[in-house]
Amino acid sequence: MEPRLKSPPSKLAKLKPAIAALLPGGLPADVARFYAKSDGLKFSLQGEEAVLVGLAEMFGGLKKGAFRGHVVVKKADLDELEWSDLPFYERFFNEYADVFDKKSLDRLNLRMRLKLLVSVAGESTELGIDYFDAKPTIYFVHRADAAYPLKDLGFDDFVEWFAKFGTRRWYFAFLDKKAEASLNIDLRAELERSLEDFPPEAWAPLLARLPKKKEPGPVRAQVLAAASDRPVVLTSFPPLKQPPEVLDEEHPRGVAFSADGQHLVVWGANHEVVVHDVGRRERLWKQKHAEAMDLSADGQTVAVLEHPRASERADRLVLRACATGKPLHREPWRPGCALKTLACVGGGRVVVADTADTLHVLDVATQRTLKTVPRVKHVRRLGAAGDTARVLAHIQAYDEGAMALTGPSAVKLLDLATGAVVTSWAGATTFAASADGALVALGSSGKRSVVRIVELESGRVVHELQGGATNPDEDPHAGFHLAFSPDGARLVVSERVYDASSKTVTSTVSLYDAKLGTLVERVDLGRNPERPRLTIDAEGLALSADGVLCVAADAYGLRLWRV
């Protein structure tokens, strides 16, 4: 299995004056020798292609202003930069990275001065070279977010290995332990997997650079803060049927109370996670770049799916202390693919669904992957089912082009050991389970909404709650949400109720006695007085152990009552 190599004619003589204007000393000797013979290198092997770029592309192209050197950027300059006009924008860097101190600014400046060597097809990965340091260094750049030096790799050796393997991950052999920890990748395993099609003797020198993996030793237990004993003062919140207390929070979409009722975790449409002290009405901490979140059953850990920038899907799981927002682990968990949704389940575990139709079960204390479950398609949402062995999932296909859910909807109870479906409820579009896993509430939308409270083990329908009429022209998922109280005694339901005669929609929140199946109270969320046709929707619901009901109304803040 030999690759085909193509060497385009050299353009070094033509571009030498432009290069000298950027690099007064010219190209390093080894780089100049290569480009004097060939303007890059094209690698082809059984349909796989890779390109070591020519000189013009290396420096950003011949377009006016692109072929230029590097100006050191200061923190005060960041807001004034025309980012998208800069060479290699969103390949080596972008404006979304947080710059908060000199080190983070230095890291940004490093990525901004890199020149391109290779782009890895199908991955957000580039290989670049820094000519502006004392010693030219080749870097591996991941998602325009971080650059890792390929240590002890000179340019001649780079060309030699590229000519053998193209963009297979041979370069992982030149990354160090710090890069391995940051990327959350087993470098040795990834190199072996990437080069398994080639003769072992061809890449034995690369493998020899990486240490053999040792068996993991005992893990030190996480020391978590004890639950607060400071009670929430219920009388400080208005009762239902009275105007709620509204916490000023922009575009909240999802909410969860900690087990002791002291902390309220909020996820918003602006991709932020915010944690409040409920009694003090105080914001404790905020985290940007959040795609989704869930709170552990003990209320100690917030699991967050985070993305490198707003235009991309989440690619990492960060486990944070609820009280402080500090990460519980030195590096986030990164599986190497985009992530969709997650749920904290019993036994100190978290389940994450990725875009490759795989579920990952992780241990919160160690962040180790305990199990992967493949071929679980079209997962929209996950939820705990009261134990560590199973998880609830809303399953429905999504059309990326139309940006809409399509096809049949179902809620399924999945066995995490095998991925097998234990039980399926066809037609259900939303769900909530009691903390002990005894009951599951399932919402379905037809001409009228229906919520069924079901015994999870027997499948017996305990109660069937009839809701209001639905608008046939609306998404049936809009505003339809369910939540149990921590003791399973109450169920709260939000829905959009349609009046056919006036052709108007009203959002309501209904509180039920889950044991008796009877309505306790119903609240009309009302409308925006400035835009009377716009209904105030409930996007997220939570009931605390202390009897506080929180409704996250998108664009209208967090509304709290006592119940």
UniProtKB/TrEMBL annotation:
<dbReference type="InterPro" id="IPR051200">
    <property type="entry name" value="Host-pathogen_enzymatic-act"/>
</dbReference>
<dbReference type="InterPro" id="IPR011044">
    <property type="entry name" value="Quino_amine_DH_bsu"/>
</dbReference>
<dbReference type="InterPro" id="IPR015943">
    <property type="entry name" value="WD40/YVTN_repeat-like_dom_sf"/>
</dbReference>
<protein>
    <recommendedName>
        <fullName>Anaphase-promoting complex subunit 4 WD40 domain-containing protein</fullName>
    </recommendedName>
</protein>
